[in-house]
Amino acid sequence: MDVVIWSRIQFAMTAAYHWLFVPLTLGLALVMAVMETLYVVKKDSFWKKTAQFWIKLFAINFAVGIATGIILEFEFGTNWSNYSWMVGDMFGAPLAIEGILAFFMEATFFAVMFFGWEKVSPKFHLASTWLTGIGATISAYWILVANGWMQNPVGTTFNPDTVRSEMASAAAFWEVISNPVAVSKFCHSVTSGWVTGGIFVVGVSAWYLLKNRHSVFARKSLLVGAIVGLVGSGAVMLSGDSSGVHAAEYQPMKLAAAEGLQDGGNGVPFTIVPGVKIPKMLSILATHKIDGFVPGINDILNGYIDDDGNRVPSVAEKMEVGRNALDALAVYRQLKDVDPTLAAASRQMLEETVQYMGYGHLEKPEDIVPPVGVVFWAFRFMIGLGMLIALVLLLSLIAVWKDKLGAWKWLLWAAIICIPLAYITGQCGWIVAEVGRQPWTIQGLLPVNVAISSLSAGAVKTTFFVFLAVFALFLAIEIRIMLGAIKKGPEVEPLDA
After folding, report:
1. What are phi and psi for residue 133, nearest 5 degrees?
2. Shortest CA distance to 142 belongs to which of 112, 106, 192, 169?
3. Other Cβ atoms closer than 10 A to 176
4. Are 131 and 105 in contact (CB under 8 A)?
5. Is pLDDT above 60 for 250?
C-alpha cells in the first residue's frame, strides 16, 4: 500500500502543478484573441500593443505548462503500468490524437503568433492567434476524453485473451469521444479557464490602476477581462449542472461524498454548510426532479431501488460477482489451449459478470467510500470561491460602466486577491473529480491498488521529492518572470504611461 499511496501522491502533485498553467492558457488565449480582433477591426495600434502584452504573459505560462504535461503523461507508464497495459489501446488513442493534431497545431501557430508580427499580414497573424487558442482548446478536449472515459468507461470491450479494454469498431470510438461525462468535463474545464483568464486580466489591470500606471490600457483590458470572465462564469454554472446530473447517473458515490449524504431518499436537500440546507435542492440538481431519488453512502453500500424501479445490488453482491468474474478469467486463460469447451463456458460466465470485475479486487465494501470530508469541503470551496469571483467580475464591469474604478479601490484589491483564489477554485474542482472517484482508476473496473507498477516505495518517494524540487524551481522562475513582465508593463503610447 505504500507504493500505491506514494504513487497517488506523486501523480496528484504533478497533475495539480500542471493545472496551475492550463486554465490561464485557455483563458488568456480567448482574451488576447479578442483584443487582437479589435486591433484588426478598428486598425488602432493601441489594441495591437495591448494584445502583445497579454500574448507575452500567455507565452511565459504556456512554456512552463508544456513541461509539466509531458511528465504527467509519462507517469502513466512509469507508475501505473498495469493500468496502461489494460487500457493502452483505448487510452493511448485520444492522447496520440492530442499530440499529433492539437498540440502540433497549437505549437505551429504559437510560433507565428509570437514571432510573426512583422512577418505576416495582420489578418494572417490574427488567424494564428485564434488558432493557437483553438489548438489549446482541442488539446484539452482529447485529454478530457481520456479522463472522462476513466470516470465513465464506455465504448470498449474487455478482451480476456489480451486482458485489455479495447475499442472494436468506429462506432465504439465515436462512443468514447462523445462520452457525456467527457463532454461536460470539457465544457466545465474550458469555461473555468475563461474565468481564470478573465480574473487574471482584471487583477493585473487593477494593480496598474492602484499604481496609477497605464490607466487607459488597464481600464480597457479590465473591461475585456471582466466580460470574458463573466461569460465563463455563466457557462461554468451550466456545465456544472450537467456534471452533477452525470455524477448522479454514473458515479453516485462521488455525489454522495460531495454532499456528505449518508442516507438518501426522495426530495433530498442540498447542504450549503453543516446545519444550513436548501430543501429538495439536491434532488433538483441531481435528477432535475423536485422529488427525485438520490442515494446516500449507506444506500450504495447496501443496495437500493432507483427512480426507474430497478434494483441496484449492494457492494457485497458486486464483490461476489466480481470475484466470480476474476475466477472465470483465470480458468479461461488456463484452459483456452487445453479444453476449448470448458474455456468457452468460462468465457461466457466472464462476459456475463465483467461489469463488476473491478469489485472482485476489493477487500471490503467500505473500500468504495472516498474521503468524504475532503470531497465535501472541496466541493463547497469550489462553489463558494467561484461565486465570489463571479461577483467581483460583475462589480468590475459595473465599475467600468459607471466610471467608479477610481473610487472603488476596495474592488481593485478584491480583484487582485481573486487571482490566487481562482487557482484554488480550480484545484478544488479537480479534488472533487478525482478524489471523489476513489478507489477507482477506472470506475467500477480497475481499483488503484491493481493499476500500480511493480516499483518500490523508496523509488517513488525519491522521484516524488525530485519532481517536487524541480516543479518548485520552475514555479518560482515562472512567477519571477511573470511578475517582471507585469512590472515592466505594456509598450503603450506615452500619454498612457
Report:
1. -65, -40
2. 106
3. 22
4. yes
5. yes
| The pairing of beta strand 440-442 with beta strand 446-447 | antiparallel
Q: Spell out where 301-343 has E strands.
A: 304-305, 311-312
Reading the block at residue 489, the C-alpha cell is 508593463
DSSP-derived letter for residue 155 is S
Are residues 320 and 357 in contact, defined by beta-carbon separation less than 8 angstroms?
no
Q: How far apart are CA 291 and CA 289, in angstroms?
A: 5
Checking DSSP bridges between strand 157-159 and strand 446-447, what pairing results, if any?
Answer: unpaired
Distance CA 272, CA 115 (A): 49
Task: Give me the amino acid identity at 370.
Answer: P
Residue 106: name the closest of 66, 74, 71 by CA: 66
CB atoms within 10 A of CB 455: 15
Q: Given pLDDT bands bounded at 50, 70 and 90, which one contains residue 54?
A: very high
**Grid cell at residue 27:** 483563458
Q: What is the mean pLDDT of residues 161-169?
A: 87
The amino acid that residue 295 corresponds to is P
For residue 385, the surrounding DSSP H or E stretch is helix 372-401
Report CA-CA distances (Å) from 249 to 165, 307, 443, 447. 22, 11, 12, 20
Q: Which residue has the cell 509519462?
A: 74
3 state DSSP class of 29: helix
**What's the whole-number average pLDDT of the chain?**
91
- Residue 494 has a pLDDT of 47
The answer to whether the pTM exceeds 0.85 is yes
Residue 4 phi/psi, 5-degree rounding, is -60, -50
Q: At what angle do helices 104-115 and 45-79 cross, to 10 degrees?
A: 150
Q: Is the dihedral of CA 398, 402, 406, 410 positive or negative?
A: negative
Strands 311-312 and 440-442, sheet pairing: unpaired
Q: How far is CA 90 from the centre of its chain?
A: 19
Residue 51 has, within 13 A of its CA and on its CB side, a CA count of 25
Instruction: List the alpha helices (DSSP H) in 80-121.
Output: 81-97, 104-115
Q: Which amino acid is at 5?
A: I
CA distances from 27 to 32, 55, 200, 338, 481 (A): 9, 11, 9, 59, 19
Give helix then strand counts, H and E, for the chain. 18, 10
Contacts of range 291-295, beta carbons closer than 8 Å, 24 or more positions apart: 291/266, 291/267, 292/266, 292/267, 293/264, 293/265, 293/266, 294/248, 294/252, 294/255, 294/256, 294/259, 294/261, 294/264, 294/265, 294/268, 295/252, 295/256, 295/264
Give the Cα-Cα-Cα angle 94, 34, 476 (nearest 5 degrees). Answer: 65
Q: What is the rounded average pLDDT of the residues 376-388?
A: 96
Contact 261, 297 (CB under 8 A): yes
Phi-psi region of 165 (alpha: psi -120 to 50; beta: other; left: phi over 0): beta
In this structure, the number of other CB atoms found within 10 A of the CB of residue 155 comes to: 21
Looking at residue 209, its amino acid is: L
Residue whose C-alpha cell is 452533477:
244
Question: Any idea what DSSP says for residue 152?
Answer: S
